[in-house]
Design a protein that fits this description.
206 residues, mainly alpha, Tetracycline Repressor, domain 2, 11 helices
C-alpha cells in the first residue's frame, strides 16, 4: 500500500529516521538482507541509538509496519479519489489513483507490508500480524463505497463488498509481485487496468 516515500524526518528524531530507512531498504532488499548496519548507516544513527529504540531487527519490523500503516492512512485519506459524489465513481477513481502512483523505481512504489508479509509470514508472527493490520485496515476503507455502489445500482450476486475490497488488494499486491519478477512497472499498471474492467463488469457499466 504505497506511496509515502522519502519523507525528510527531523534529523534529531533517530527513531523516525530508522523507520524511514527500514521502509526504503526493506522494499529494495527484503527483510532478511537488511542488516542493522544498513539501517543505522542510512538513518545516520549509531547502533546504540538503534538498540535504544528497538529490542532488535524484528521489533523494528513490527514498528516499521505500524509506521507504514499510519503514514499511508494519512496519504490515502487526502487522495483525490474521495471527491466524486457517486460511490462507484469513487471506487473506480481509487483504482485509477493506485495506477497513477506506480511511478519511479520498483522499490519506490511497492508496498512495505506486502513485501514483509510475503517474506516473514511463517517465521515472524508479530510482524505478520502488523502487516495484516495494515493491509486489512486499508482494505476496510473501500467497503462502504463498494456497498453503497451495490445498493445504488441494485447489483446482487454471491459476493460481498468486503470480498471485493480484499480482491482489489490481491490484484494490487499481485501486480507488485509481477513488476518485481519481470522488472517492469508496466506489469503492475496492466493489473490495475484489468481490475478496472472487472469492477465495471460487476456493476454492468462500460
Amino acid at each position: 500500500m504505497p506511496r509515502p516515500t522519502r519523507n525528510a524526518p527531523e534529523r534529531g528524531n533517530a527513531r523516525i529516521r530508522l523507520l524511514e530507512a527500514a521502509r526504503d531498504i526493506i522494499r529494495a532488499k527484503g527483510f532478511a538482507a537488511t542488516s542493522v548496519d544498513d539501517l543505522c548507516r542510512a538513518a545516520g544513527v549509531t547502533k546504540g541509538a538503534f538498540f535504544h529504540h528497538f529490542a532488535g531487527k524484528e521489533a523494528l519490523g513490527v514498528a516499521a509496519a505500524e509506521h507504514w500503516a499510519e503514514t499511508t492512512t494519512a496519504f490515502f485519506a487526502a487522495a483525490p479519489y474521495h471527491a466524486p459524489p457517486d460511490p462507484l465513481a469513487r471506487v473506480l477513481a481509487y483504482v485509477a489513483f493506485r495506477k497513477a502512483i506506480i511511478v519511479g523505481e520498483i522499490a519506490e512504489f511497492t508496498c512495505l507490508v506486502g513485501t514483509l508479509a510475503q517474506e516473514i509470514y511463517a517465521s515472524a508472527p508479530d510482524m505478520r500480524d502488523a502487516c495484516g493490520r495494515s493491509i486489512f485496515g486499508h482494505t476496510a476503507t473501500l467497503v462502504d463505497d463498494i456497498e453503497a455502489a451495490r445498493l445504488d445500482r441494485g447489483v446482487a450476486g454471491n459476493w460481498t463488498a468486503e470480498s471485493l475490497a480484499r480482491h482489489t488488494q490481491a490484484v494490487i499486491q499481485g501486480g507488485f509481485v509481477l513488476a518485481k519478477a519481470g522488472n517492469d512497472p508496466e506489469l503492475a499498471r496492466e493489473s490495475l487496468d484489468h481490475l478496472d474492467r472487472y469492477i465495471r463488469h460487476l456493476f454492468h457499466v462500460t
